[in-house]
Write a structure and sequence with these properties.
Layout: E1 7-12, H1 20-30, E2 34-39, H2 41-46, H3 49-56, H4 73-80, E3 83-89, H5 91-98, H6 105-112, E4 116-121, H7 125-128, H8 131-142, E5 146-147, E6 153-154, E7 160-161, H9 168-177, E8 190-195, E9 200-203, E10 206-208, H10 215-226, E11 230-235, E12 247-250, H11 254-262, E13 270-273, E14 280-282, E15 301-303, H12 307-313, E16 320-326, H13 331-342, E17 346-351, E18 363-370, E19 379-382, H14 383-400
Parallel strand pairs: 1-2, 1-3, 3-4, 4-5, 8-11, 8-13, 11-12, 13-16, 16-17
Antiparallel strand pairs: 6-7, 9-10, 14-15, 17-18, 18-19
Helix pairs in contact: 1-9, 4-6, 5-8, 10-14
The protein binds flavin mononucleotide.
Length: 402
């Protein structure tokens, strides 16, 4: 994740490793993060709050308000934070946060923080391997808390083993390598997006397909998710992974995609038909691999069902349907024709016009054609920009039906 501009609340608990948190704080600031600190009473015995207050240039949230405790610091700080990291996290605090106890600044912030939560456990090896700590760590992980590894090493108590707090640089790298998670406010709407390509079997080892990568569909999934939609993706084969926040239905052929979409389309407020679905499939699939006879081979192709048209046919009031058309010639003519024939609300015309655009690339030449409207000139932009255009149109359409 990009730490620049991130608001990070650092929780510090009572352990020797608390001194390392000063270095961690500086490393986070160097990345451009804004950092504030909360401390348990035990932590203040290891590092003076004044140190953290000076480094963070902000009052530290403490139990007895020795530095400065504003009346609502216990909710102000966690509300402000995009990310809450407890480092070091003592066995005692692990026990509290895993079991709903919130009786000190660090555990209280944990309970009232809606952002991402990370902990860096630090303790003696026997404490670390105790059933209580291990069970509590499992519980935290199961509830989405990122538990940093406590690697083997020399411990402050003189023993060697697991339980050492990860080094500040290791913690920083773990944060930087983590996937970005945005705090999303749900809007109660659902979008179904078809993604990738389809594969139409010729025989058990060969198929007809195309070069769609799934990148545009994942860009669309991202912007709808960020706008608060519940996202479902019906994915044919793709070169990129579907985002982890989306519910995924995997399919292979156009027939399977047709079935997966049409069987649940009515449950969605928005349908985005982004997948590159094969128009035709072999009339028959050979049971065995077709042998090379060195003579001409004819493949009989029959049309696949039209998923866009069939979903428009059963479109319910207020539902928004977006179709895609990839054209290599006469784009305006074909786009208008497809929009009229399909009855979609919006048609995304796209053309693989340049080397740096189209299949598998981050940019695309596209034009958003609204029902009854003219075809705007093609523009070259990022797939995210295309996705934002679809989102903007969809939100306006949904607003009209309120
Ligand atoms: C010198 C010393 C070092 C300690 N180091 C640790 C430690 O690394 N990890 C830990 O879980 N507890 C450690 N403890 C015990 C905790 O400080 C103690 O459990 C305390 O109640 C934790 O409170 P807190 O979770 O509110 O910060 C240490 C205690 C002392 C006196």
């Amino acid at each position: 994740m990009n730490l620049c501009g991130k608001k990070i609340l650092l929780g510090v608990t009572g352990g020797i490793a608390a001194y390392k948190t000063c270095t961690l704080l500086r490393l986070l600031q160097k990345e451009g993060a804004e950092v504030r600190v909360s401390m348990t009473s035990a932590a203040t015995k290891f590092v003076a709050p004044l140190t953290f207050a000076s480094l963070s240039k902000c009052p530290v949230y403490l139990e007895n308000g020795t530095l400065e405790a504003r009346p609502f610091q216990h909710i102000d700080f966690p509300r402000w934070a995009d990310l809450y990291l407890i480092a070091p996290c003592s066995a005692n605090t692990i026990g509290k946060i895993a079991n709903g106890i919130a009786d000190d600044p660090v555990s209280l912030c944990f309970m009232s923080c809606a952002g991402e939560k990370w902990i860096a456990p630090a303790m003696n090896v026997t404490m670390y391997s105790s059933f209580a700590v291990q069970q509590n760590l499992e519980r935290l992980k199961a509830n989405g808390v990122h538990v940093l590894e406590s690697p083997k090493g020399e411990l402050a108590c003189g023993e060697t083993g697991e339980g050492r707090m990860a080094e500040p640089e290791e913690i920083l790298n773990a944060l930087k390598n983590a996937k970005e998670v945005k705090n999303v406010c749900k809007n109660g709407k659902r979008v179904l997006i078809t993604a990738g390509r389809t594969e139409e079997l010729i025989d058990p080892v060969r198929y007809i397909s195309n070069r769609s990568s799934g990148k545009t569909a994942t860009a669309i999934a991202n912007v709808f998710y960020e706008a608060g939609f519940d996202v479902t993706m019906v994915c044919g084969p793709m070169d990129v992974a579907a985002p982890s926040f989306s519910k995924v239905v995997n399919v292979r052929s156009a027939i399977e995609m047709h079935e997966a979409v049409l069987s649940q389309a009515k449950d969605y407020d928005v349908l985005v038909h982004c997948a590159a679905v094969a128009d035709y499939r072999p009339a028959e699939v050979a049971n065995e691999k077709i042998k090379d006879s060195r003579s001409q081979l004819h493949l009989d192709l029959i049309p696949n069902p039209n998923i866009l048209r069939d979903s428009v046919a059963q479109k319910r009031k207020g539902q928004v349907v977006v179709g895609f058309a990839l054209e290599t010639e006469k784009p305006e003519l074909h786009a208008k024709e497809k929009l009229e024939k399909s009855g979609a609300d919006l048609l995304v015309l796209n053309m693989p016009v340049a080397k740096e655009s189209g299949f598998g690339k981050d940019n695309v030449a596209f034009s958003l054609v609204e029902k009854g409207g003219t075809v705007p000139e093609l523009q070259m932009a990022s797939k995210r920009d295309l996705a934002l255009g679809i989102l903007r149109f969809t939100l306006l359409e949904l607003e009209k039906t309120k």
